[in-house]
Design a protein that fits this description.
38% helix; alpha/beta; 9 helices; globular; Alpha/beta hydrolase; 13% strand; Rossmann fold; 216 residues
Protein backbone atom coordinates (compact mmCIF):
# COMPACT_ATOMS: atom_id res chain seq x y z
CA UNK A 1 0.00 0.00 0.00
CA UNK A 2 1.45 3.39 -1.02
CA UNK A 3 2.39 5.81 1.73
CA UNK A 4 0.16 8.90 2.04
CA UNK A 5 1.56 12.00 0.33
CA UNK A 6 3.65 14.52 2.25
CA UNK A 7 3.22 18.22 1.50
CA UNK A 8 5.86 20.89 1.96
CA UNK A 9 4.30 24.33 1.63
CA UNK A 10 6.37 27.43 0.82
CA UNK A 11 4.65 30.80 1.36
CA UNK A 12 5.06 33.90 -0.77
CA UNK A 13 7.45 36.79 -0.32
CA UNK A 14 7.40 37.91 3.27
CA UNK A 15 4.38 35.75 4.08
CA UNK A 16 4.24 32.85 6.50
CA UNK A 17 2.07 29.88 7.44
CA UNK A 18 -0.97 32.15 7.83
CA UNK A 19 -1.61 32.05 4.07
CA UNK A 20 -2.17 28.29 4.30
CA UNK A 21 -4.55 28.33 7.25
CA UNK A 22 -7.65 27.69 5.13
CA UNK A 23 -6.26 24.69 3.22
CA UNK A 24 -7.58 21.25 4.13
CA UNK A 25 -5.16 18.58 2.92
CA UNK A 26 -5.49 14.83 3.36
CA UNK A 27 -2.15 13.99 4.96
CA UNK A 28 1.10 15.19 6.50
CA UNK A 29 1.80 18.89 5.98
CA UNK A 30 4.92 20.94 6.72
CA UNK A 31 5.40 24.67 6.13
CA UNK A 32 8.93 25.63 5.14
CA UNK A 33 9.58 28.83 7.01
CA UNK A 34 11.73 31.53 5.50
CA UNK A 35 15.34 31.71 6.61
CA UNK A 36 17.23 34.95 6.99
CA UNK A 37 19.58 35.47 4.00
CA UNK A 38 23.17 34.88 5.00
CA UNK A 39 24.25 38.00 3.09
CA UNK A 40 22.37 40.73 1.16
CA UNK A 41 23.53 39.02 -2.05
CA UNK A 42 23.11 35.34 -1.13
CA UNK A 43 22.48 33.48 -4.41
CA UNK A 44 19.06 31.87 -4.76
CA UNK A 45 20.42 28.31 -5.38
CA UNK A 46 22.49 28.57 -2.20
CA UNK A 47 19.47 29.78 -0.24
CA UNK A 48 17.34 26.98 -1.73
CA UNK A 49 19.91 24.40 -0.61
CA UNK A 50 19.57 25.64 2.96
CA UNK A 51 15.78 25.56 2.71
CA UNK A 52 15.93 22.03 1.26
CA UNK A 53 17.57 20.70 4.40
CA UNK A 54 14.07 20.37 5.88
CA UNK A 55 13.05 17.95 3.08
CA UNK A 56 14.51 14.41 3.41
CA UNK A 57 16.39 13.54 0.17
CA UNK A 58 14.78 10.11 -0.23
CA UNK A 59 11.20 11.14 0.50
CA UNK A 60 8.57 11.37 -2.25
CA UNK A 61 6.68 14.56 -1.60
CA UNK A 62 4.84 17.55 -3.01
CA UNK A 63 6.44 20.99 -2.97
CA UNK A 64 3.67 23.59 -3.10
CA UNK A 65 4.94 27.13 -3.57
CA UNK A 66 2.94 30.37 -3.58
CA UNK A 67 4.28 33.33 -5.59
CA UNK A 68 7.98 33.72 -4.67
CA UNK A 69 7.58 30.44 -2.80
CA UNK A 70 6.97 28.82 -6.17
CA UNK A 71 10.35 30.02 -7.37
CA UNK A 72 11.93 28.39 -4.32
CA UNK A 73 9.90 25.21 -4.88
CA UNK A 74 11.44 24.88 -8.33
CA UNK A 75 14.93 25.47 -6.95
CA UNK A 76 14.44 22.97 -4.13
CA UNK A 77 13.06 20.38 -6.58
CA UNK A 78 16.40 20.40 -8.42
CA UNK A 79 17.92 19.04 -5.21
CA UNK A 80 15.09 16.65 -4.33
CA UNK A 81 14.35 14.54 -7.44
CA UNK A 82 11.47 12.66 -5.75
CA UNK A 83 9.55 15.89 -5.21
CA UNK A 84 6.70 17.04 -7.44
CA UNK A 85 6.04 20.75 -7.77
CA UNK A 86 2.81 22.74 -7.65
CA UNK A 87 2.96 26.48 -8.35
CA UNK A 88 0.19 28.71 -7.02
CA UNK A 89 0.10 32.32 -8.24
CA UNK A 90 3.70 31.93 -9.33
CA UNK A 91 5.78 31.85 -12.50
CA UNK A 92 8.34 29.69 -14.29
CA UNK A 93 10.70 32.23 -15.81
CA UNK A 94 11.37 35.90 -16.63
CA UNK A 95 9.28 35.85 -19.80
CA UNK A 96 6.17 35.60 -17.61
CA UNK A 97 6.95 38.77 -15.68
CA UNK A 98 4.66 41.73 -16.40
CA UNK A 99 6.18 44.60 -18.40
CA UNK A 100 6.98 46.56 -15.25
CA UNK A 101 8.83 43.56 -13.83
CA UNK A 102 10.82 43.17 -17.05
CA UNK A 103 11.77 46.85 -16.97
CA UNK A 104 12.83 46.55 -13.34
CA UNK A 105 14.84 43.43 -14.20
CA UNK A 106 16.64 45.17 -17.06
CA UNK A 107 17.32 48.46 -15.27
CA UNK A 108 17.58 47.22 -11.66
CA UNK A 109 15.40 50.12 -10.59
CA UNK A 110 13.92 47.85 -7.93
CA UNK A 111 16.93 48.75 -5.79
CA UNK A 112 15.49 52.25 -5.39
CA UNK A 113 12.05 51.14 -4.18
CA UNK A 114 11.53 51.18 -0.40
CA UNK A 115 10.26 47.73 0.67
CA UNK A 116 8.15 49.37 3.39
CA UNK A 117 5.96 51.09 0.78
CA UNK A 118 3.05 48.64 0.46
CA UNK A 119 2.37 48.21 4.19
CA UNK A 120 1.88 51.99 4.35
CA UNK A 121 -0.61 51.94 1.47
CA UNK A 122 -3.17 49.26 2.40
CA UNK A 123 -5.68 50.25 -0.30
CA UNK A 124 -3.00 49.96 -3.02
CA UNK A 125 -1.80 46.65 -1.58
CA UNK A 126 -5.36 45.29 -1.57
CA UNK A 127 -5.77 46.29 -5.23
CA UNK A 128 -2.47 44.71 -6.31
CA UNK A 129 -3.16 41.48 -4.45
CA UNK A 130 -6.79 41.37 -5.50
CA UNK A 131 -8.30 40.99 -2.03
CA UNK A 132 -11.97 41.91 -1.70
CA UNK A 133 -13.27 40.67 1.63
CA UNK A 134 -12.66 42.23 5.02
CA UNK A 135 -11.14 38.97 6.28
CA UNK A 136 -8.63 38.76 3.44
CA UNK A 137 -7.80 42.47 3.65
CA UNK A 138 -7.06 42.24 7.37
CA UNK A 139 -4.88 39.15 6.87
CA UNK A 140 -2.92 40.83 4.06
CA UNK A 141 -2.40 43.95 6.17
CA UNK A 142 -1.09 41.88 9.09
CA UNK A 143 1.31 39.92 6.87
CA UNK A 144 2.68 43.05 5.19
CA UNK A 145 3.21 44.73 8.56
CA UNK A 146 5.15 41.71 9.82
CA UNK A 147 7.38 41.46 6.75
CA UNK A 148 11.08 42.01 7.33
CA UNK A 149 12.31 44.77 5.02
CA UNK A 150 15.79 43.26 4.63
CA UNK A 151 14.30 39.96 3.54
CA UNK A 152 11.94 41.73 1.13
CA UNK A 153 14.81 43.67 -0.45
CA UNK A 154 16.82 40.47 -0.91
CA UNK A 155 13.87 38.48 -2.24
CA UNK A 156 12.78 41.08 -4.81
CA UNK A 157 16.29 41.20 -6.24
CA UNK A 158 16.52 37.40 -6.43
CA UNK A 159 13.03 37.08 -7.93
CA UNK A 160 13.57 39.64 -10.68
CA UNK A 161 16.98 38.23 -11.64
CA UNK A 162 15.89 34.58 -11.55
CA UNK A 163 16.57 32.85 -14.92
CA UNK A 164 13.87 30.18 -14.51
CA UNK A 165 14.16 26.40 -14.32
CA UNK A 166 12.57 24.96 -17.50
CA UNK A 167 13.90 21.52 -16.60
CA UNK A 168 11.63 21.34 -13.54
CA UNK A 169 8.07 20.24 -14.46
CA UNK A 170 5.29 21.84 -12.46
CA UNK A 171 1.53 21.76 -12.10
CA UNK A 172 0.19 25.28 -11.99
CA UNK A 173 -2.80 26.96 -10.35
CA UNK A 174 -3.45 30.63 -11.05
CA UNK A 175 -6.06 33.35 -10.64
CA UNK A 176 -7.90 34.89 -13.57
CA UNK A 177 -7.32 38.44 -12.28
CA UNK A 178 -3.79 38.22 -10.91
CA UNK A 179 -2.41 41.78 -11.21
CA UNK A 180 1.07 40.93 -9.95
CA UNK A 181 1.65 38.02 -12.36
CA UNK A 182 -1.05 38.43 -15.03
CA UNK A 183 0.51 36.04 -17.55
CA UNK A 184 0.46 33.02 -15.26
CA UNK A 185 -3.12 31.96 -16.05
CA UNK A 186 -2.19 31.28 -19.69
CA UNK A 187 0.39 28.73 -18.55
CA UNK A 188 -1.69 27.01 -15.86
CA UNK A 189 -3.61 23.76 -15.85
CA UNK A 190 -6.04 25.09 -13.23
CA UNK A 191 -7.40 28.64 -13.45
CA UNK A 192 -9.60 29.94 -10.64
CA UNK A 193 -11.56 33.19 -10.28
CA UNK A 194 -9.59 35.68 -8.21
CA UNK A 195 -6.37 37.62 -7.82
CA UNK A 196 -2.89 36.93 -6.48
CA UNK A 197 -4.12 35.62 -3.12
CA UNK A 198 -6.28 32.74 -4.33
CA UNK A 199 -4.41 30.62 -1.79
CA UNK A 200 -6.69 32.41 0.71
CA UNK A 201 -9.80 33.32 -1.28
CA UNK A 202 -10.01 29.97 -3.13
CA UNK A 203 -8.54 27.70 -0.47
CA UNK A 204 -11.38 25.16 -0.72
CA UNK A 205 -10.94 24.70 -4.48
CA UNK A 206 -7.16 24.52 -4.15
CA UNK A 207 -7.51 21.93 -1.38
CA UNK A 208 -9.64 19.80 -3.70
CA UNK A 209 -7.15 20.13 -6.56
CA UNK A 210 -4.20 19.15 -4.37
CA UNK A 211 -6.10 16.21 -2.92
CA UNK A 212 -7.06 15.05 -6.42
CA UNK A 213 -3.47 15.32 -7.67
CA UNK A 214 -2.16 13.10 -4.88
CA UNK A 215 -4.74 10.39 -5.53
CA UNK A 216 -4.08 10.11 -9.29
Amino acid sequence: MAAPPVFYLIPGLGADERVFQFLRLPSEVHVLKWLAPETPAEPLPHYAARLAEAVPPGQPCWLVGVSFGGVLAQEVARLRPLARVVLISSFAGPRELPWLGRVARATRLYRLLPPQLLPKLPALASWFFGVKTTRDRQLLTQILRDTDSNFTRWAIARLLQWPGRPEVPAIRIHGTDDRLLPHGAAHSQYVLPGGHLIIISRAAEISRILTMLTTN
